[in-house]
């Protein structure tokens, strides 16, 4: 379409969005005349206190908002200000506030690789949360204690989290594909009092034991007092003495569900960085910050309403699990899936979308690329009439995948390429149901976040590549890092480049439409001859070639400069001969610039990625330069790094 325009909502659709209703509420309350997203964004940054207060009222947050919206720190207003300093609320209470109204309707629907659905009503959800809350209370769990999940993406995982939050305690989780060392790197720092796990889980048609690994974790974390096992398939497992069976905890005679209201900035979640450069950072997120931000991102940016069917393909080791669970606060039904997205075939998630009438489908960019490579066209085989929003995150969504979504999935769809991270448990850029979608661009900057692009001189620029920064305070900034008593690790992670400015580490460009184009992580930017090149610019074109399954590119120190080195995983039956190399170079030279063309192209059988599917570019760079990788356990496939060591072609 003209100027890269791929989709725009019609007037009727715009009028009935929650975002349009919010604009009307702002205009009425504050005597403004805002019209459209850009007006609202400018106002929300200029009057961020009014925005967050309005959002509290608009979304019906349960709790006492307190007397003040924000205590502004005079020395560091962006880093150290405190939102809703006297507010009291409970996260679980807000996620379950629709339970009475929708008692017999589905709150959660679960399906795995067997594709047999299991449904839990809102009434059943409340009853089970009450039972698990009572169990935790009887174990002495109090506000400030940590409860952990070493679990698949099950309804019981959500229930355990809600029971923890109902007590005002802190939830932390990781997925069962993490090895024992990886779990100890995380839970060994946060020291949970109770650990929930499962007996086994399924992936790609195989069954994997989890109980043995969980017992090893318990044996190495003295703080863990109780281990609870959730049967994955519902069959009662044989458990060692001293281990509790989830099914035994779901007793009927428990007190009604009660909620302990805590301070707005009290800890709710501990999330973990990938840990590829050292022990994972334990990032503490607040009760109120998470709730308000997710209400904003769901209701205003994604138009999530009561009765919607909300799905995100994720594990419990990724922040998107926490993000999806919060959709209960908007009255949506969670549709959960655990297993491979390609087992028994590439249609498994689209059958899920059709059967359960998904309204929001969330996934990773790499999944969409893989579907395109396999020639999968969901629109031809499945009815997706209910689907309104498709979210993609985890890595850069290439322009060609934008085309794929509209050509092969659905033409009338809000495609939201969202980006943020574990650091804020949310997004700096995401969608807008009032705004067009342009090819290759994230739609808009997040409401009330003063997101800018800074050049090397620390100046805000548009239509130029630079660093993504945030120039104001917002409620979902981390409370801090676990055991970071003087705050130095937190400061060094985000705030040490320009005083009081959050540097996020993404290399981006702000477009004329107010959208954002991503070029990769700024710490992985290539710099041959002093020219900065985003790695995503190369992946976009190389990964489109039919001969290439996947790739990773790094900058190698060479003769007092940096040269570009590209590693490729080839399709079956393809050999990296000279014609293939020349085809790759020609594609990059034509589609990018001569500066982008790799000096060396080498074949590998596997591309290293983190547990959440992100490319481990820095790990590859370290190995190529003969340096140790700090945390191999952070990688999903650490053995793959062996083939990057001492490559003869990299010594020439």
TrEMBL record:
Gene3D superfamilies: 3.30.300.30, N-terminal domain of ligase-like (3.40.50.12780). Residues 37-94 form the Acetyl-coenzyme A synthetase N-terminal domain. The keyword ATP-binding applies. Keywords: ATP-binding, Ligase, Nucleotide-binding. GO terms for molecular function: ligase activity. Pfam families: ACAS_N (PF16177), AMP-binding (PF00501). SUPFAM superfamilies: Acetyl-CoA synthetase-like (SSF56801). PROSITE patterns: AMP_BINDING (PS00455). This is Acetoacetate--CoA ligase. It comes from Salinivibrio costicola subsp. alcaliphilus.
């Amino acid at each position: 379409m003209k100027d890269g325009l791929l989709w725009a909502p019609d007037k009727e659709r715009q009028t009935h969005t929650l975002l349009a209703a919010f604009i009307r509420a702002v205009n009425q309350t504050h005597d403004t005349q805002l019209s459209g997203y850009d007006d609202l964004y400018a106002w929300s940054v200029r009057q961020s206190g009014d925005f967050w207060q309005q959002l509290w009222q608009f979304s019906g947050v349960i709790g006492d908002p307190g007397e003040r919206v924000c205590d502004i720190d005079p020395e560091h207003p962006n880093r150290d200000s405190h939102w809703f300093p006297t507010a009291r609320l409970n996260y679980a209470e807000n996620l379950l506030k629709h339970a009475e109204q929708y008692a017999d309707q589905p709150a959660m629907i679960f399906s795995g690789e067997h594709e047999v659905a299991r449904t839990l009503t809102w009434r059943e959800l409340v009853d089970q949360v009450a039972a698990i809350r009572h169990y935790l209370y009887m174990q002495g769990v109090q506000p400030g204690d940590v409860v952990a999940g070493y679990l698949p993406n099950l309804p019981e995982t959500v229930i355990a989290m809600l029971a923890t939050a109902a007590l005002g305690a802190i939830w932390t989780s990781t997925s069962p594909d993490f090895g024992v060392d990886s779990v100890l790197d995380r839970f060994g720092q946060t020291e949970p009092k109770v650990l929930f796990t499962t007996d086994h889980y399924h992936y790609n048609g195989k069954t994997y034991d989890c109980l043995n690994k969980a017992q090893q974790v318990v044996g190495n974390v003295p703080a863990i007092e109780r281990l609870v096992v959730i049967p994955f398939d519902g069959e009662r497992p044989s458990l060692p003495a001293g281990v509790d069976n989830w099914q035994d905890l779901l007793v009927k005679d428990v007190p009604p569900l009660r909620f302990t209201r805590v301070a707005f900035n009290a800890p709710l979640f501990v999330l973990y960085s990938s840990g590829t450069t050292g022990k994972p950072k334990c990032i503490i997120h607040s009760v109120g910050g998470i709730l308000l931000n997710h209400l904003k991102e769901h209701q205003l940016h994604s138009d999530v309403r009561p009765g919607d069917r909300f799905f995100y393909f994720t594990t419990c080791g990724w922040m998107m699990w926490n993000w999806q669970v919060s959709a209960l606060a908007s009255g949506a039904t969670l549709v959960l899936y655990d297993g491979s997205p390609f087992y028994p075939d590439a249609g498994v998630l689209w059958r899920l979308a059709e059967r359960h009438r998904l309204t929001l489908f969330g996934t990773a960019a790499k999944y969409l690329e893989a579907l395109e490579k396999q020639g999968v066209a969901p629109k031809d085989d499945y009815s997706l009439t209910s689907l309104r929003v498709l979210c993609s995150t985890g890595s850069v969504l290439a322009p060609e995948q934008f085309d794929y979504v509209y050509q092969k999935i659905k033409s009338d769809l809000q495609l939201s390429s969202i980006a943020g991270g574990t650091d804020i448990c949310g997004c700096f850029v995401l969608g807008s149901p009032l705004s067009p979608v342009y090819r290759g661009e994230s739609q808009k900057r997040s409401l009330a976040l003063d997101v800018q692009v800074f050049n090397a001189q620390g100046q805000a620029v548009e239509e130029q590549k630079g660093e993504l920064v945030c120039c104001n305070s917002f409620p979902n900034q981390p409370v801090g890092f676990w055991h970071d008593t003087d705050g130095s690790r937190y400061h060094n992670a985000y705030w040490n480049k320009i005083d009081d400015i959050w540097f996020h580490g993404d290399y981006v460009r702000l477009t004329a439409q107010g959208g954002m184009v991503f070029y990769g992580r700024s710490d992985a930017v290539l710099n041959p001859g002093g020219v900065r090149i985003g790695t995503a610019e190369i992946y976009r074109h190389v990964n489109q070639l039919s001969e290439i399954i996947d790739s990773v590119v790094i900058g190698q120190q060479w003769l007092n400069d940096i040269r570009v080195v590209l590693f490729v995983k080839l399709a079956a039956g393809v050999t990296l001969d000279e014609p293939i190399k020349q085809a790759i170079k020609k594609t990059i030279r034509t589609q990018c610039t001569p500066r982008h063309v790799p000096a060396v192209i080498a074949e590998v059988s596997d591309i290293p990625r983190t547990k959440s599917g992100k490319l481990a570019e820095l790990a590859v760079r370290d190995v190529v330069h003969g340096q140790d990788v700090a945390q191999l356990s952070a990688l999903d496939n650490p053995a793959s790094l062996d083939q990057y060591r001492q490559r003869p072609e990299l010594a020439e």
